[in-house]
Design goal:
Blueprint (H helix, E strand, L loop, with lengths): L2 H20 L14 E5 L4 E4 L5 E5 L13 E5 L2 E3 L1 E6 L4 E6 L8 E6 L15 E7 L6 E4 L5 E2 L5 E4 L8 E8 L2 H6 L6 E3 L3 E2 L10 E10 L5 E3 L3 E5 L6 E6 L1 E8 L11 E4 L3 E7 L10 E12 L6 E5 L16 E9 L1 E2 L4 E5 L1 H13 L5 E4 L4 E4 L9 E7 L1
Parallel strand pairs: 2-9, 11-18
Antiparallel strand pairs: 1-3, 3-7, 4-5, 4-8, 6-7, 8-9, 10-12, 12-15, 13-14, 13-16, 16-17, 16-18, 19-30, 20-22, 21-29, 22-28, 23-27, 23-29, 23-30, 24-25, 24-28, 26-27
């Protein structure tokens, strides 16, 4: 046998052993070794983490469940412990920390795992593990009205919640369309962008349509955007049967600068550049089943013009005998609902989709404050004056 062949035969066992080694399974951890953290969420130093994201730590082997509890795994915000349910999942070998209350926004949290955590094979963690993450700046959006898939009037209002009260830091983009894909993808222009938590449509939804809608919240300070889910409602057909009724007048009031006279029991009350005057009907959430096709208000002028009179919805609660100028109450931002149209030399009517939406919302849900009456010219509105029509609201509703 020559020297080359002898050398090759001598190396063959080592080569075969190396080849087998490449396909061998990883060696199992030795019993008694410390369990190893192999994955975790959120990742260390992550920012903008959703406040409701899962928090967990995964190990390379099963843990002794009796060593995993609120004394060995906990969450802190600064120095304060956050109340959590601590759960161990044997299948995934994960410790889950589930806060009992929603995490605060834009705060830094620390996850801490105690050295006392032990594996089933007896290995002890031995050293403390901790990492930090920071939460995002928006909460998820939920919809309260209309109910999913419900049948609504063509001026139905939209309501949502999730980020607390109205804030100057949060805007809401409202997407509405008969195309569900376009709404879900936000590929249609938003209808409005506003800070309010409801939308009173100023033009009616198409009769007989199924309308899809969704809200995107925008934190104007952080720049974060958070899309809400897509919801839908159906709209009454154009030929759906309707009826009408008169809504009872609840009260009116007004004053003129410098607030010396209160027109709360008078037979008429003035409106004009120096006045603050309000009127309301019995619409305080007392008609929860109300679905409107139309609403109109009729007023009579005891003197002065009957055109150019404007109805705004009020921003504040008010008392009929405690009006102030220029307010409160003040007109709501973008609260103009309708401008009067003359019926004749004395009588005027107010009718619009925005007015219908407001009246339905006030009747069904309350939390609205009636109307402010504005005019650039001095006018006296008849309230309980002989030979003049009293203020009247008539609604046409779906039966």
């Amino acid at each position: 046998m020559n020297r080359r062949l002898a050398c090759a035969l001598a190396l063959l066992p080592a080569l075969l052993f190396a080849a087998c080694g490449r396909n061998a399974k990883p060696t199992a951890p030795a019993a008694g070794d410390a369990p190893v953290l192999v994955a975790r969420a959120p990742t260390p130093r992550a920012i903008g983490v959703p406040y409701d994201a899962e928090i967990w730590a995964q190990f390379d082997r099963p843990l002794d469940r009796s060593t995993v509890d609120s004394t060995t795994a906990f969450l802190k915000q600064d120095t304060r412990r956050v109340s959590c349910d601590i759960v161990y999942e044997p299948i995934t070998r994960r410790i889950l920390l589930r806060p009992r209350d929603a995490l605060e926004l834009q705060k830094t949290y620390t996850v801490i795992l105690s050295p006392k955590i032990r594996a089933q094979d007896g290995g002890v963690l031995g050293t403390q593990i901790l990492w930090q993450f920071s939460t995002n700046s928006l909460r998820r959006i939920f919809y309260s009205q209309p109910p999913e898939g419900s049948l609504q009037g063509p001026c139905a209002a939209l309501y949502w919640y999730g980020n607390g009260l109205v804030s100057s830091l949060i805007d809401y983009e409202v997407y509405v369309s008969a195309d569900s894909v376009a709404v879900a993808s936000r590929s249609v222009p938003y209808l409005v962008r506003q800070g309010f938590l409801s939308l009173l449509p100023r033009s009616r939804w198409p009769s007989g349509a199924r309308m899809f809608w969704a809200i995107t919240a925008v934190n104007t300070q952080s720049g974060e955007r958070l899309d809400g889910p897509t919801a839908s409602f159906r709209v009454y057909a154009a030929d759906a049967p309707v009826d009408s009724m008169v809504i009872p007048l609840l009260g009116y009031g007004g004053t003129i600068s410098p607030n010396r006279i209160q027109y709360c029991g008078s037979t008429s009350f003035p409106i004009g550049p120096g006045n603050n005057s309000c009127i309301r009907w019995t619409l305080n959430g007392n008609l929860p089943a109300l679905r409107l096709a139309d609403a109109r208000v009729q007023l009579a002028a005891a003197s002065g013009p009957v055109t150019g009179i404007q109805l705004f919805y009020a921003q504040n609660e008010w008392s009929v005998c405690q009006m102030l100028t220029p307010g409160p109450p003040y007109p709501e931002v973008n609260g103009l609902l309708v401008t009067s149209r003359a019926l004749d030399a004395t009588n005027m009517t107010f009718q619009s989709d925005g007015l219908t939406s407001f009246v339905e919302a006030a009747g069904r849900f309350g939390s609205w404050y009636g109307f402010l009456i504005r005019s650039q010219q001095a006018t006296n509105i008849a309230a309980n004056l002989a030979n003049f029509a009293a203020p009247k609201m008539v609604v046409t509703y779906y039966r």
